[in-house]
Design brief:
Mean pLDDT of chain A: 72
Distance between the termini of chain B: 45 Å
Distance between the termini of chain A: 72 Å
Oligomer: heterodimer
Radius of gyration of chain A: 31 Å
Strand order of the largest sheet of chain B: 2-3-1-4-5-6
Strand content of chain B: 15-25%
Number of helices of chain B: 11
Radius of gyration of chain B: 25 Å
Mean pLDDT of chain B: 80
Order of helices and strands of chain B: HHEHHEEHEHEHHEEEEHHH
Strand order of the largest sheet of chain A: 2-3-1-4-5-6
Shape of chain B: globular
Order of helices and strands of chain A: HHHEHHEEHEHEHHEEEEHHHH
Structural class of chain B: alpha/beta
Number of helices of chain A: 13
Helix content of chain B: 40-55%
Number of strands of chain A: 9
Largest sheet of chain B: 6 strands, mixed
Shape of chain A: globular
Low-confidence stretches of chain A: 1-75, 393-408
Structural class of chain A: alpha/beta
Chain lengths: 442, 338
Amino acid sequence: MQEPQQQHQDHGGHEADRENEGQDHPHTPSYLRPPVAGRAQSDSGSEPSLTQSKCVEFDLPSPVSPSRPKSPWSLFDPYDNNEDKEYVGFATLPNQVHRKSVKKGFDFTLMVAGESGLGKSTLVNSLFLTDLYKDRKLLNAEERITQTVEITKHTVDIEEKGVKLKLTIVDTPGFGDAIDNTECWKSVADYIDQQFEQYFRDESGLNRKNIQDNRVHCCLYFISPFGHGLRPLDVEFMKALHEKVNIVPVLAKADTLTPTEVQKKKIKIREEIEQYGIKIYQFPDCDSDEDEEFKQQDLELKESIPFAVIGSNTVVEAKGKRVRGRLYPWGIVEVENSAHCDFVKLRNMLVRTHMQDLKDVTRETHYENYRAQCIQSMTRMVVKERNRNKLTRESGTDFPIPMGPAVSESETEKLIREKDEEDIMQTVPETLINKVKKQFLC
Amino acid sequence: MSVPSCQLFDQTKEECGVMQSPLVDFSYVGIDAILEQMRRKAMKQGFELNIMVVGQSGLGKSTLMNTLFKSKVSRKSVLATSQEKIPKTIEIKSISHDIEEKGVRMKLTVIDTPGFGDQINNENCWQPIMKFINDQYEAYLQEEININRKKRIPDSRVHCCIYFIPPTGHCLRPLDVEFMKRLSKVVNIVPVIAKADTLTLEERDFFKKKIREELRSNGIDVYPQKEFDEDAEDRMINEKIREMIPFAVVGSDQEYQVNGRRLLGRKTKWGTIEVENIAHCEFAYLRDLLIRTHMQNIKDITSSIHYEMYRVRRLNESNTAVTQANGIPEHHLSAHEM
């Protein structure tokens, strides 16, 4: 019954339609744009528009449509009641995602590395207002001679405004303390790899419901303020770890330096980082549509590396105010004063603005690199094993077995091996995952 | 947008100026800002939603999709088919659109299944649909186990399947039962009573009750599934929804003037049915469920339950294949993995 009327409308010309549209919806919100992709055909105007200008009179009174039921989002609701009818309503999606995350809570793993006495524990306590190192026993020099670098983990649950964070601090006591510090970063690198491996196993496993993410999201590396820039140990450590974890260099105990000295040191350290090819954590670039204030802050952040920090666990009284700081005869250093140090910048970066990005880069770059390497080395072992079996005519078990002493291979052998690896990697990556699993599980 | 920290500092200082505890005086770290970071990221990335509509031809599937998303997103609107021909076999056609509202972008894919239930012999007509759904899971699985994975794997898995029940007023047909029984195991099914303006309120209530009974007696678990309620709060909300399923909907893409307001509806000689009026039909509830409140939940159940079940099955299958080749008894391995 409707159709003939519609066709009539069509003949009437499209101008009429559009005009009517304009009249009928003077307050059509600009947000609601028509679908972009796939609409090319319908845009030709051969179909009647969605909104027809029909005025029909009625005899029977009809009840007024009730307004939308009260939304569960309250403050965060992007729609107000009056806008109800014109919107589809999916702008609440970010809220829906939030709700789930707020229920589940977040986690974050932060590693601190650097020589003893650079204020790592104090800084961690200041950053998160926690008391993680209360009952710590500090070793004296004799005890430290035989100490190796251990890895300790402290976990604390913090809740603020309904948001729960499970914070894990990974500490590296003993780093750089011995007389001979060769390869003291090895246990740190191994720890990070272990966490990746654990996650890889969990992710490839069958029950993925509650995977614990213990991967290290960020490593604060403490640079001593007493040297002239980076020391050889600093360079080696950062180079060993820059492809495994996000490194954020920090200039420790910055209250031993005057502002000019801080500036000079920062420039020197940045130059050296560039010179040695160390890839520290890069802040993502701002979108062009961010507001000016944000862009300004972002720029300042990039120019503050390494962050010159001061930590304090005590509150002192200064000019009638109570501040977190360090009391000296010549004055009070305020931790949260951005004229005194970069503590606030670091905290904001770490917690308030870049926490999610740190986790994303860990997940998308460092972990994926590890995973790709892992699979490649599995493939390599499989290929070697197959070749070995071909020679000895054993029935192929296809289980990667640890190899004996490596045999140097000629150029052709290398090419053949690489081709084999490629073949394997392209066919059925799935069976490969099974092999990986078996190796872990047997 | 982060508040400049010095401002925040002053605020908290004033608030807890007289607090006595020495260490945690200014106790605001700012963890809740992570929500803002997540929101920003989500807005940049956009969302994806894949809805499948299943039902006999003529039940108003395309119109309902257009009504739900207030634009011409259905297959019929995009392709200029002059005559509606019933295809000889079931086809699966998907159309994608990018839509945006209040800065939130969404890639909506509507998957249509023309030919379902229209043949004379409808035996196994659910098979192509099940195959399609499993193929999407397979594609996602292959991406996931790839060595060089994409940052964000494109999600073509079917999040929700809206099943249209013809408004007979009596009970479910054998085809309905068979289809829903099989598919509720692999995808979230939302059953709706189509063209509900042919039923009076009493008939509608009776029909709904009958349908719910039949669903229960056949062990069909439609969305929201009871076993996936996470906590008491969810259960409360979902119980209310479960008491209303299936939603009796009416779709329309034409507007009429009613009492000085323009509303979507269907005009008849005896009155106008307003689509968004909950006294007339339950479209508003369906829309709220699908879009405004449970969209993320639907996607989560698809990815963390249906997809995981598929994955486990697939990995076990290929395991069996490998072990049989190697001569290791299967139960040996399962013991390890579980």
